[in-house]
Amino acid sequence: MNDTNILASDRTSKSFVGLEISDSDEIVNNTSAADRTSNKTRFEVISLFSGCGGMDLGFLGGFTVLGRRYSRHPFKLIWANELNEAACKTYRKNIGSHIRQGDIWMKLDDLPAEADIVIGGFPCQDISINGKGAGIQGHRSGLYRAMVEAVARVKPKIFIAENVKGLLMKPHAKALQQVLKDFEALGYDVSFKLYHAADYGVPQTRERVIIIGTLPGVKPFKHPNPTVEIKDHITVKKALHDLVALSEDESINHIWSRANRSPDQGDRRLVADRPGYTIRAECHGNIQWHYELPRRISMREAARIQSFPDNFIFDAKLRETERQIGNAVPPVLAWHIAKAVTESLK
Q1: What tens-digit pLDDT sequence spans the chain (346 residues)?
Q2: Which of 324, 325, 323, 290 is nearest to 304 (CA)?
Q3: Which DSSP category does 108 fall into?
Q4: Cα–Cα distance between 58 and 70 in angstroms, integer?
Q5: Which one of the listed residues 52, 88, 124, 283 is annotated catalytic?
């Protein structure tokens, strides 16, 4: 599968999506004439800590979510890496076969010699609010140094690093400064911003830090302004209403956990007239409850809340799919960041 095969060609989605989607939007594999023209000036992208491909899909563009078409961007993914084998299976099914599974430190010598952009959401378990507070000295979050090493080797025009809001909290102030300092030492002009996904058309109150670095001579990156006012945030009812009457269907990931009530997120019910709560990766089946039905939300519903298109099929069982969805960068948020990156590269 090459980079034009962005989404699974599965047509099942049309049978359960109650939103208006044209045939050309349904099958994104059929590249339009306009897309083929833009492909002549594509910028090459390397993806690190890729997960199932949420950020990568956002950079490619060419998909439809909740009735809105997100156009293709002039980017070509040439190399990607992810440790989790199940996530790699989903990535290959939906994005492409260019992903390498394994430890990033063992894969660095396999990096392409050059690329225009390096993107990645380095692991954040030691920094997150629900983590153990080890910060960037922790085993997982310390992997940001692998991204620094990749940027040092490839010298892209721009790099984009995503992480949790906890990186901005006082206990991690020195950690943030160290991360910025390490990237700046490579000669990059570095900036960061806290993004609220709901402000960009994602039906979820997810906050993430985006760190951007540009080489001298590249047009300064301008962080995109919110596209949706608070009063117009997409609610979970608007995002999920057409799935209420749909029976369980594993082929489209419309399956849900039977875990009993439990503390914290495990007992949290979605509120119909507001965006969904942040989807977590390690909820161990204790994912949030549906706003109306007497069950937890399905994986398809969780994917909708994360702004994945309906024909993005997770090639995994329930628990692993939960993890992949929760770890992902919302593709729609990534799409807006990618659009701003194109402005810098112009």
Answers
A1: 444 343 443 333 333 443 333 333 332 333 344 444 444 579 999 999 999 999 999 999 999 999 999 999 999 999 999 999 999 999 999 999 999 999 999 999 999 999 999 999 988 654 444 445 554 554 454 788 999 999 999 999 999 999 988 888 887 788 889 899 999 999 999 999 999 999 999 999 999 999 999 999 999 999 999 999 999 999 999 999 999 999 999 999 999 999 988 877 678 999 999 999 999 988 888 999 999 999 999 999 999 999 999 999 999 999 999 999 999 999 999 999 999 999 999 8
A2: 325
A3: G
A4: 9
A5: 124
Contact 57, 95 (CB under 8 A): yes
Q: Within a 10 A sphere around the Cβ of 232, how many other Cβ atoms?
A: 11
Interacting residues of 56 by C-beta distance below 8 A, sequence separation 6+: 45, 47, 50, 77, 80, 91, 95, 119, 334
pTM higher than 0.85 for the full model?
yes
Indicate the residue type of 78.
I
Q: Which two tokens stand for residue 263?
A: 């503390």
For the purposes of burial, counting CB atoms within 10 Å of the CB of 174, is it exposed (0-12), middle (13-18) or buried (19 or more)? exposed
Contact status, residue 183 vs residue 190, Cβ threshold 8 Å: yes
Q: Which letter, b or e, does each residue of 113-126 get, where b requires 16 or more Cβ atoms within 10 Å of its Cβ?
A: eebbbbbbbbbbbb
Is 124 annotated in the active site? yes
Q: Edge to edge, what strands does the sheet with 207-214 contain?
A: 99-101, 75-82, 43-48, 117-120, 158-164, 207-214, 189-196
From residue 160, alpha-carbon distances to 42, 80, 87, 94, 154 in Å are 17, 14, 21, 22, 14
pLDDT score recorded for residue 175: 84
For residues 251 and 243, give the distance between their C-alpha atoms in angstroms, rounded to a whole number.
14
Domains (ranges, CATH) in the chain?
A: 22-228+330-345 (3.40.50.150)
